[in-house]
Specification:
The structure is a single chain. The relative contact order is 0.14. The chain has 2 domains: 2-33; 39-341, 3-Layer(aba) Sandwich (Rossmann fold). It starts with a helix and ends with a helix. The longest helix is centred in the N-terminal third of the chain and has 27 residues, at 2-28. The strands form 2 sheets. It has an 8-stranded mixed beta sheet with strand order 2-3-5-4-7-8-9-10, sandwiched between helices. Strands 1-6 form a two-stranded antiparallel ribbon. It has helices spanning 2-28, 93-96, 123-136, 149-160, 185-192, 197-205, 210-215, 221-224, 227-238, 241-254, 257-260, 262-265, 267-270, 290-299, 316-319, 321-341; strands at 39-41, 56-59, 64-70, 75-79, 101-105, 115-116, 142-147, 165-171, 277-282, 303-309. Helix 5 (185-192) packs across helix 10 (241-254). The chain is of the alpha/beta class. The chain is 46% helix and 15% strand.
Amino acid sequence: MSLLHGWRRGVVLLSAGVVVAWLAVAWGSGMSLSGSDAWAVAPGAFTQDGFSGAKKIVELPDYTVAVYEAGSGPPLLLLHGCPFSAVEWRAVIPELARHHRVIAPDLLGLGDTPVRLDQDYRLPHDVAMVRQLLDHYEIERAPFVGHDHGGATVLLLMKEDPDRIAGAILSNIEAYDLWPSLPEIPYLKAIVHPLTSPLVYYLMKYGVLNDDAFSLAFHDAEATLDEAMLASFTAPHVADAARWQRLRRFFRWQLDEEHNRITMDAVPAMREFQRPVKLLWGRQDENFGPAIAERLIGDLPGAVGVEWFEHSGHMPMLEEPDKYATEVLAFVAGLEGSASSD
């Protein structure tokens, strides 16, 4: 009996130790912060990645936004994807900025844009933020480049305020009811679930899962996704526990089927949008593949075609940046030529 009693006591102590350890990990990952009105990202708290420090804070009537600006000339808006930030444009901005005033905000709930933990930063707020950003810069209408979540923002802008769009480039975007993509759902669920989220936080904070998670976005991750780029993708989410809780909240909305139907609601407006739209699409994308691009072409009357990036997955602006910048500049030059001839 004494042996059995000792065994039971050992199991109880071990179980208690596991619970205490999990509570410590959960506390460290910010689970106690969830739902509070504390800053998830405070104004001016920029990621140290050799790029984001050049962002500036723009105060809008309803939002505070981190924006990367470069160049001068006609404006060009770049809207990044999820779970990325304006840093995804870093390889193409230098060439684009030789011809345009590039304006690349961090969308709400991503990058370094300030938000509170109880703030609503779903897609309709991104659309409202972009409209206010255009007003701030006194831009009546501009060309947009939208990728992934930023592309979904452009689709909703076609519904809410289409006259602000001079023309659009869409790259591997969230559209219809086809997001989030199947390959990313296990990661999203692990980040959101209260039992697994603390563990994933520490695994990503210390670089254990990062390569596996972000390599999904690339056709040839070994050639493109170096340590510096990987850190620039990961740091905005794991720099501290509050940022991690922001990501959990963001991904809860990503997994909400009712919220995601909002892009289906934009389809009638897409079918009425007459201005030019071109698709620059990574053909090897396992998240949002060629079938989505072909469907979009059929639903956008102003579509001028698809340029396939044969050696790219979800991130053609990073896997084939020279070609990407060339295509963007050619498309926008065509818009400007058409406007001057009208």
